[in-house]
Amino acid sequence: MRRLALVALLLVSACRVTSAEVVVGGPPACAGQHADGLTPTTVRVGGVYPLSGPASAYGAVAQGAAAYFAWANARGGVAGRQVEFLVRDDGYQPARAVEEARRLVDSDRVFALFQTLGTPSTAAVRAYADRRGVPQPFVASGASDWGDAAHPWTIGFQPTYAAEARVYARHLLRTRPHATVAVLYQNDDFGRELLTAFEDAVAGTGVQVVARRGYEVMDADVQAQMAGLAASGAGVFLNVGTPKFAAQALAADAAMTTWNPLHLLNGVANTPSLVAGVGPAALRGVLTTGFYKDPVAWEDDPDVRTFAAAVRRHVPDADPASSQVMFGWTSAAAFAAALERMECPSREGLMAAARDLRDVEIGTLLPGITVSTGPGDPYPVEDLRVFRFGDSGWEAV
Amino acid sequence: MTAEPRTGTGHRRPAVGQYAGDRRRAWPYPRTALAMAAAAAAAVPFLVPPYPLYRVTLVLVYVVALLGLDLVTGHGGLISLGHGAFFGVGAYTAAILLAAGAPYPVTLPAAGLVAYGLGHAFGRPAVRLSGLYLAVVTFAVAVAVPPLIRRLAPGGAMGLPARTPGAPSFTGLDDDQWVYLLVLAVTAAAFALTRVVIRSTAGRALAALRADAGAAELLGIRPPATRAHAFAWSALYAGVAGCLFTWTTGFVAPESFTVTLSITLLAGLVIGGLGTVPGAVIGAVVVAFLPAPGLVSGLALIVVLAVAPHGVTGLARRLPSFLGKDRA
């Protein structure tokens, strides 16, 4: 009994030895804000990426971001702070993403979660980020949801899937005003948002969606869906899949000699591994959209050269010709821009800066496209250009 | 040690720790040990940083699930491969209720009752057949539940975030400490209930059925009813554990409750030791910390079964007599 009483006394006297959060004293405007993981000379950030599993092709995004931070560190850091970038694997499973985010925040004490990849994982982590007040800036997912003001700790980066769908619709209305469209889509928020926005954009015009088939991320392949879509005989095929399934659809399309639609490949599926996997013959004439410089097509651009040199030097495993690596690099540059513009050195300050970027230019974005947010505009990049696959690579249309 | 006894029956009793469900005392200070374990468990949230505390909380969650599975497998001698599904059903019941604005205390009995009802529905027809059929039927349940969740539950394949219990301000605790203490309280209640159930008439009937079904039936025990009740009770434990899982993680997704979880739970229980409370605790540590089923966990299972066929607990129970003079 005496031992029990002693333990009870210990508990009451010392309420957790290890949890003290870092609170900013500093200027009065910033007092009371939180700054775990941030010191005047360092900042620790953590990213959760699908390094394994069905969407592991996106793992290269982490390499691009790592290359950017290593490159910035070698040049004196971001606003004088050395960036420590921790990467975790969620296998594209939302439950594991939450688990890893929790580990990053609670155990590794990261300042911010830069970044989470994929709509399911990002949505899952968002609830946790809200609860803990941890910034989740520039997520690698194009869902419109990330502009939701009810979740102040999360902000997107790339153009939304809805914006992308409208670009396809505009392009079709201009070039094939009476097209019939067959759609293959991933049956989650990503696929449904693109499909719905596309249908809305073409509603009341000559362009008609005549067939659509969904698949689940856990499915093995999309053969059955492709057969059903081919039976529609549509003139245009909109391929709204993640790389693995989009590649299967491309291969199926190329194999079917009786059905030769204009193939629209959604932007997130356009990975180097897909291009290498299905080969240039299956891709010829395929259309896609993009907003950053393709490392191959822009090989001679000075910013792309800096990028390629930094990737080769700091992340030798990565492929400097990969557009996914470029995506990671570009979004990391936007994150650095937000870090530089923090008025308060705190999590709150980071989000305020990320929501107030005025036409920030990043060298690896396509000419004329900038990162821009402000009150009432929670979408950093909103412009897209259309590309066609020529003989060996993507060419501007 | 000549002939390996199959059960604990007969007048030549094997040494302590040689068969599952052995209730003879092997450790001389049970009360002191229990008090110290309770004190340590209560002290953990104040000494451990947040992330490890979260892992320890999950261990307690799995303890509750394994206590339930042990009713069927350890005490009843039946194999269930469906407890991951009941766990998931409980977790989703809690998450859906929380999303609808229900208060926390409501979700615990609700999750338990839904799982209990499902346990009755599936267990009643299955246990009429022999033990292996229960394994097959429950396996089918475990396989069917994740796709059903994906199609029918809110959130679908994306999963469903849920609120987690916040500490009342008068306690001065962090939220994660509060959740730990809640889970600890439920775990303690589950322990107590297990003791009561096992010592009850129904619990003894279950053990008798495992030892010798024919003899038990001659004594007036009805095998299907007894086993169906045990199965439903164990599903209730799994449902409650699922609810605690939702409280702890604040997020549920179908892939968290696949057949893999069911198999991991069973493997954890076998490694920990069937038919004992410490076995459930050790098994829960195994479930929480062993990497996803693969080479490592497969080898661990084989090694444990080769070295200690009655689990880590059986090994530990043999220790005192092994060290003493009265070695069997």
Could you write a compact summary of the structure shown?
The complex is a heterodimer of chains A (397) and B (328). With 397 residues, chain A is of the alpha/beta class.
Characterization of this structure:
Chain A is an alpha/beta fold and 397 residues long. Chain A has two domains: 35-159 and 301-384, Rossmann fold (3-Layer(aba) Sandwich); 161-290, Rossmann fold, CATH 3.40.50. Helix content of chain A is 40%, strand content 14%. Chain A is built from twelve helices and ten strands. A four-stranded parallel beta sheet of chain A has the order 5-4-6-7, with helices on both faces. Chain A has a three-stranded parallel beta sheet with strand order 2-1-3, sandwiched between helices. The mean pLDDT of chain A is 90. Chain B is mostly helical and 328 residues long. Chain B has 13 helices and two strands. Chain B has helices at 30-47, 50-75, 83-99, 104-127, 131-152, 175-199, 201-211, 213-218, 223-249, 259-272, 277-289, 295-307, 311-323, and strands at residues 160-161, 251-252. In chain B, strands 1-2 form a two-stranded antiparallel ribbon. Chain B starts with 29 loop residues before the first helix and ends in a 5-residue tail after the last helix. The model of chain B is unreliable at 1-5 (pLDDT under 50). At the A-B interface, α1, α3 and α4 of A face α1, α2 and β2 of B.
How many whole angstroms does the radius of gyration of chain B measure? 20 Å
By DSSP (H or I, 4+ residues per run), the number of helices of chain A equals: 12
The residue-averaged pLDDT of chain A reads 90
Could you tell me the mean pLDDT of chain B? 86
Name the structural class of chain A.
Answer: alpha/beta
Number of helices of chain B: 13
CATH architecture of the largest domain in chain A: 3-Layer(aba) Sandwich
Q: What letter string, H or E per element, gives the SSE order of chain A?
A: HEHEHEHHEHEHEHEHEHHHEE
Oligomeric state of the chains? heterodimer
Largest interface: A-B, 34 and 32 residues
Whole-number count of domains of chain A: 2
